[in-house]
Design brief:
Layout lengths: L2 E2 L2 E2 L3 H10 L6 E2 L7 H10 L9 E2 L1 H8 L4 E5 L12 E2 L6 E4 L7 H5 L2 H12 L3 E4 L5 E4 L2 E4 L2 H11 L4 E2 L5 H11 L7 E4 L2 H10 L3 E5 L8 H4 L6 E3 L5 H8 L1
Parallel strand pairs: 3-4, 5-6, 5-7, 7-8, 8-11, 12-13, 13-14
Antiparallel strand pairs: 1-2, 9-10
Length: 248
Amino acid sequence: MLHVSGEPIPGAADAVARLRADGHALRFVTNNSTRPRDVLAEELRALGFELSDEELQTTPRAAARELAGKRVVALVMAAIVPDLDGLELVGHDADAVLVGGCDETTEPNQVFSYMNLARAFSELEAGAELYCLHKNKWWQTSRGPLLDAGAFVAGLEYAAGVDATVLGKPSPAYFAAALDALGAEAELTWMVTDDVEADVVGAQALGMKTALVRTGKFRPEQLDTATAVPDAVVSSLAQFPDWLERAL
């Protein structure tokens, strides 16, 4: 919604600045699970977005809270390991299996190798619980849609006969954490997103208002098949501040 493969959506940074100037409290809630929070925040600042590290909510930190003290087999990108502080990362006899997301490098080839997926399956068969940072099917890049780790999560669910606990969006707990951080009431809070499946559905489950942008992951046909209807659809984040001002 803010950028695609490091190219900012035109007008998005100005929109964020405008929302701040208009007095709105902001929370950047992401399912990105390939880089630590401080790196993600710095990358966004380099693209012109004004935000602090603390305003950025990430799935690895949600996992660190949820799985604190547990023995975890983690199929994740190496860069996020520092954000998993408090987890005992192991190769066997695990309490939990944690599946992260993919990025545009070759690292997913190693992380989601047959050997690693088979190890995860064995741990699930032995009684470990399955968790995932998200269950995204794909994400938008400058090369087009790329397969995300939701496919591997679904495969492990199918093979082991278990259901994964999703720690990021659309988990109600993830949205509730954002509301708590803002000190905001759900019915007075807007979720602005390009993902109708993960974000609109999850936010509306808590009573939040939702605005869908026609950039990034957006596909027109999703509006016909989605289980939830956004409260607003705008061309991009750049148009949202003006739309919101008229709506209030």
